From TrEMBL:
It comes from the Eukaryota. This is MYO10 protein. Residues 1-233 form the FERM domain. Transmembrane segments: none annotated. PROSITE patterns: FERM_3. Residues 230-271 are annotated as: Disordered. InterPro entries: Actin_motor_Myosin, FERM/acyl-CoA-bd_prot_sf, FERM_2, FERM_central, FERM_domain, IRS_PTB, PH-like_dom_sf. PANTHER family: AGAP003327-PA, PLECKSTRIN HOMOLOGY DOMAIN-CONTAINING FAMILY H MEMBER 3. It holds the Pfam family IRS.
Length: 271
């Protein structure tokens, strides 16, 4: 999750995590120690964010200009543009190598400071740093939230499935945009093979994702586990009702929105 960018934290912390990983893998720093590739220690997307954004081409304003541009594209002008693009790509690759070398040097300096730390201590320190993120322990899925305004495109989000709640994150942001404990969720299921529906009280959230089954199965697992741990209520002990339905969400996390409904339409998972 760290390497895929699913732990939003500072670049300094990411470098420290990489150094702790090296200490865990290779023990103390040595010039003879095997060096993993940078992408095995540090999230590559962080390096890409340092590069300048690509320039946008200015659209031609009149039909004659567009026509001339089209005619020239297959001739000398097109060759010149291709050469410019190749030179620009080469400069970006060079800049990326420089940023990578600088980052690796910073990681190695932090690794040297860990001399004498054993593997268990390095692993414990690594986990302690990651646990500082409030979403630690959640499984994150890339989803597109369908929005209702006409003309508005879907919003790219992280859907975090945890033991006590479902949270929505803006990618890279440490705090959730919204969070729903299981007591507020009235139903969930697959609308189709690429759309997951989550009903929260009076709201229906539709997510476009390629991991519909994985999300639904994980949600169901947490619900069954939470229901199994739920202690009996006083009124339950007095009336001795039948055994609780495993799909009933735990009480006490937040006010109930209504009875739990697990709706697996066509194409959904099997509970």
């Amino acid at each position: 999750m760290v390497l895929r960018g699913y732990v939003p934290t500072s670049e300094e912390t990411l470098q420290t995590l990489a150094a702790l990983r090296l200490q865990s893998l290779n023990s103390d720093f040595s010039t003879h120690a095997p060096f993993p590739r940078l992408e095995e220690l540090f999230p590559p997307h962080v390096l890409h964010t340092r590069l300048p954004p690509p320039r946008r081409r200015t659209p031609t304003k009149c039909r004659g200009a567009r026509l001339r541009a089209g005619l020239l594209a297959g001739g000398l002008w097109g060759q010149a543009l291709a050469k410019q693009r190749a030179e620009r790509d080469q400069r970006l690759r060079g800049r990326l190598r420089e940023e990578g070398a600088s980052t690796m040097a910073a990681i190695v300096e932090k690794w040297k400071l860990l001399q004498g730390m054993g593997r268990p201590e390095a692993m414990a320190a690594y986990v302690a740093l990651v646990r500082e993120w409030p979403g630690f322990g959640s499984t994150l899925f890339d989803v597109d939230l369908r929005t209702s305004p006409v003309g508005a495109g879907p919003q790219r989000l992280w859907l975090g499935i945890g033991a006590k709640a479902v949270s929505l994150y803006k990618p890279g942001e440490p705090e959730p945009l919204d969070s729903f404990c299981y007591g507020r969720i009235s139903s969930f299921g697959a609308s189709d093979s690429s759309t997951f529906r989550l009903s929260v009280e009076d709201r229906d959230l539709l997510f476009e994702t390629s991991q519909v089954d994985e999300i639904a199965q994980l949600l169901n697992t947490y619900l069954v586990s939470a229901a199994a741990r739920r202690p009996p209520q006083p009124q339950e002990l007095a009336t001795s009702p039948p055994a609780p339905d495993p799909t009933t969400p735990p009480q006490g996390l937040c006010p109930m929105a209504g009875p739990w409904q697990l709706r697996p339409p066509v194409g959904s998972f099997h509970s």
